[in-house]
């Protein structure tokens, strides 16, 4: 029987990995400019962490977690999201004593046993940020600005929409909940099976349901934004005002509540309408009560997570993106190959991407490979070139070529790459 991978956990093949690396490198660079440092938490945690952090009434805890008992009889879960592990690390390592305001980011795989479909997998990858320690609405605005800058300015994904809402806090959440329950009292029979259960556990989650019947009922239901207390209303007004100053376009979505119980006040999503049903690329919000619920002092926080698989689906195809870069050394004959390997080693040591044929292919076959590898330059070295102390250097973009002295080719190529970097920012 042929072995196959696990359903919903796709492989990332070499032809795709370069795109992922580009997105990851772009994101890391931007996050560092905004003052975020990387944190790496384990891929599995004690199950209790997610039950307490995410909430027992959520779909994630009830249906989707990969949970197992290890040999020491400890109940463990593959992480389904990144915020709870970050908060656990924040408390365990007393990070607040080192920095009163902590800004961290994470990048890695998450696991949920959902029904696999386009844009939704059982192993998926997230880039997330958490800013812990400030109630100020300016922090909300900066976090949203960071997300928008990443999606629109750095990754240049077109036609994105930012949706914004406020879902209140402990002061006004009871009022929001009571108004919704009263509205649903004689309408609950029209809810789906899951939402009928949510009525008693977490009624706000009804507003997040994608079932058509639930959506039609929710369309006329009281909205959280209508019942905000004075403090939450003022906070939300300031967030919107700052986003206006930063010229970040947004739409108020008064049904946006997010899927996790720990969210308070500001909630937001970035969606790509081109992706169909699974169109949310990123989302987040405030979690001002989470750290206290997990045994720490009352500490505010806000963050977001970006779904990398959906980002990749929103980017141009691999064949459409990126400038050609690097060098391919094409050789003819055993002696040329030996010298070519030495040239390639020196070019790599000098920081260039370098490739060559090690299988004694024909020159025509090597040139085909150079095109496939999308290199900018091709160095051709054969018996005639060796006798003359020359190499033939071909510019694959301009489709022209000329001779360069063998002893000068390394410095010549390094100089060409430096010019490309100055002109375009990339080789």
TrEMBL record:
Key word Magnesium present: no
MF term (GO), any: ATP binding
Domain Aminoacyl-transfer RNA synthetases class-II family profile: 1-315
Transmembrane regions listed in the UniProt entry: none
Subcellular location as annotated: Cytoplasm
Entry-linked HAMAP family: His_tRNA_synth (MF_00127)
Protein name: Histidine--tRNA ligase
Lineage: Bacteria, Candidatus Methylomirabilota, Candidatus Methylomirabilia, Candidatus Methylomirabilales, Candidatus Methylomirabilaceae
């Amino acid at each position: 029987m042929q072995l196959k991978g696990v359903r919903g956990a796709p492989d990332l093949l070499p032809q795709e990995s370069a795109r992922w690396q580009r997105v990851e490198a772009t994101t890391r660079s931007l996050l560092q400019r905004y003052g975020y440092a990387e944190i790496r938490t384990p891929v599995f945690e004690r199950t209790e962490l997610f039950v307490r952090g995410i909430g027992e009434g959520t779909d994630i805890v009830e249906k989707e977690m990969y949970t197992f008992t290890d040999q020491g009889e400890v109940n463990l879960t593959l992480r389904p999201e990144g915020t709870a592990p970050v908060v656990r690390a924040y408390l365990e390592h007393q990070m607040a004593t080192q920095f009163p305001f902590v800004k961290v980011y994470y990048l890695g795989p998450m696991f949920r046993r959902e029904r696999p479909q386009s844009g939704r997998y059982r192993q998926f990858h997230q880039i997330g940020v958490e800013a812990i320690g400030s109630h100020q609405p300016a922090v909300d605005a900066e976090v949203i600005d960071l997300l928008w800058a990443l999606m629109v300015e750095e990754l240049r994904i077109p036609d994105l929409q930012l949706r914004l809402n406020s879902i209140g806090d402990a002061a006004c959440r009871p009022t929001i909940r009571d108004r919704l329950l009263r509205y649903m009292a004689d309408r609950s029979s029209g809810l789906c099976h899951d939402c009928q259960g949510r009525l008693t556990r977490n009624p706000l989650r009804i507003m997040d349901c994608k079932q058509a019947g639930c959506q039609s009922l929710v369309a006329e239901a009281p909205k959280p934004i209508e019942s905000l207390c004075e403090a939450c209303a003022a906070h939300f007004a300031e967030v919107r005002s700052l986003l206006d100053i930063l010229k970040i376009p947004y739409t108020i979505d008064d049904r946006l509540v997010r899927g996790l119980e720990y969210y308070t006040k500001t909630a937001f999503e970035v969606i790509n309408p081109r992706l169909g049903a699974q169109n949310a690329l990123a989302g987040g919000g405030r979690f001002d009560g989470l750290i206290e619920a997990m045994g720490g002092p009352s500490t505010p926080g806000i963050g977001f997570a970006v779904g990398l698989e959906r980002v990749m689906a929103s980017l141009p195809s691999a064949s459409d993106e990126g400038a050609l870069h690097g060098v391919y050394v094409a050789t003819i004959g055993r002696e040329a190959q030996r010298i070519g390997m030495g040239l390639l080693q020196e070019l790599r040591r000098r920081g260039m991407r370098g490739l060559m044929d090690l299988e004694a292919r024909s020159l025509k076959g090597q040139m085909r490979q150079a095109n496939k590898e999308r290199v900018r330059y091709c160095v051709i070295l054969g018996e005639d070139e060796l006798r003359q102390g020359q190499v033939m250097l071909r510019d694959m973009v301009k489709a022209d070529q000329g001779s360069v002295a063998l002893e000068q080719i390394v410095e010549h190529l390094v100089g060409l790459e430096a010019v490309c970097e100055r002109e375009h920012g990339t080789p």
